[in-house]
Amino acid sequence: MANVKVGLIGALDMLKFKNMKKVREAAIQKAPAEEIKGVWAINENAKALHPEFIEVVVKEVIDHKNASAKTFIFSKEDGSPLPYFRAGQYISLKLDINGTSTTRAYSISSSPKWALESKYAITVKDVKDGFVAPYILNNLKVGTKLVISAPLGEFYYQKYRDEKTLVCLAGGSGITPFLSMAYAVRDGIEDYNLVILSGSRNAESILFEKELADICKATSKVKVVHVLSDETKDGYEHGFITSDLIKKYAGDAYSIYICGPSAMYEFLSKELKKLDLPRRLVRSEAMGVTKEVEKESGYPKTCVGKTFTLTVIQGPKTYTVKASSNETILVALERAGIKAPSRCRSGECGWCRSRVTKGTFYISGTDSRRWSDVKWNEIHPCCTFATSDMTIEVAGEYFPKTK
Ligand code: FES
Question: Would the pLDDT of 168 be above 70?
Answer without folding.
Answer: yes
